[in-house]
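Please go through the protein record below and see whether the fold suits the sequence. Record follows.
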Amino acid sequence: MDKQSLIEEDDLPVRKVETPEWTKNPVVYVRMLDGPELMALSEFSKAGNDNKEEDEKLAEQYMWRFAAYVICDENGLRMFTNDELSLLARKNPYVLKRIVTEAQEHNGMTTKSHEEAVKNSEEITGDDET
């Protein structure tokens, strides 16, 4: 292995998500986040305050922002820019929530996906930290 081959490695896989409510696009793809995107979402999610109404607004914006980062074509290329969040804001929130939930699992951001990663790591290394 060398640095160039490591950099060229395609390590941001995509996953299909069923969206039957969208008859023209009954399937969309979500992709892994890269480092800067993950950091940006992390910083955005910490931006809450003591105002419940503002927190709810930030949660909605987080969903749109997350969806914009992960919705992609079958090759993993983003379909939405950060400037196009308002386009996603007008879409069915239940469909967006399904997409974001699938993407969070795909990115190892759920308890279930974390537990699976730990299990797989233990199988590879033979370690058992429990």
